[in-house]
Design a protein that fits this description.
binds shikimate-3-phosphate; about 170 residues; Rossmann fold; five-stranded parallel beta sheet; alpha/beta
Length: about 170
């Protein structure tokens, strides 16, 4: 891979800041930015909440896989994946083969702080009471970390300075 064909995939739990940091680092480096959730919503013409409710999770997993894999012919971008993207359809292997995978690691308590006000648009957590959310995050993270931990780079994001730009974005 030369500097001219970088594909960076940010992975991690809901609320770990994939969209936030992806946007910032794309701006800092001049890379393009893609958000898989937003691409699914745009192409399907409905929100993720509606896709889950009307078509089911399995269909959503197929749609996010299609959007991810459509990035194969794009270069020099950073993509924010959905929290479940690397855990289905062997997507983690695909990302590792075709680009640089980066796990944005955050603690359950910090994830909770961010998710508590943003439950509505996330079908997996929208029906949980606030008191149940920390347990859900802790358990789901345990289930998903074997996928997230396969990333080439693991970045702890809880104490990052707002101006931080990682080395792999400096070109
Ligand atoms: C999901 C995470 C969401 C979105 C969908 C399912 C998950 O993305 O793809 O609600 O399975 O963790 P974010 O990680 O951007 O919230």
């Amino acid at each position: 891979m030369t500097p001219a064909d970088q594909k960076i995939f940010l992975i991690g739990f809901m609320g770990s800041g994939k969209t936030y940091w992806g946007n910032k680092w794309a701006q800092a480096s001049g890379y393009g930015f893609f958000d898989i959730d937003a691409m699914v919503e745009l192409n399907k013409g409905k929100t993720i909440a509606r896709i889950f409710a009307e078509d089911g999770e399995e269909h959503f997993r197929d749609l996010e896989t299609i959007e991810l894999r459509n990035l194969l012919n794009k270069n020099n971008f950073i993509a924010a994946t959905g929290g479940g993207t690397p855990c289905f359809n062997d997507n983690i292997s695909w990302m590792k083969e075709n680009g640089t995978s980066v796990y944005l690691r955050s603690s359950p308590v910090n994830i909770l702080k961010r998710l508590v006000t943003e439950k509505e648009k996330r079908p997996l957590i929208k029906n949980l009471q606030d008191e149940e959310l920390l347990f859900y995050i802790t358990e789901k993270l345990k289930e998903r970390e074997p996928f997230y931990n396969q990333a080439k780079i693991i970045l702890d994001v809880d104490d990052l300075d707002k101006n931080f730009v990682p080395d792999f974005m400096i070109i």
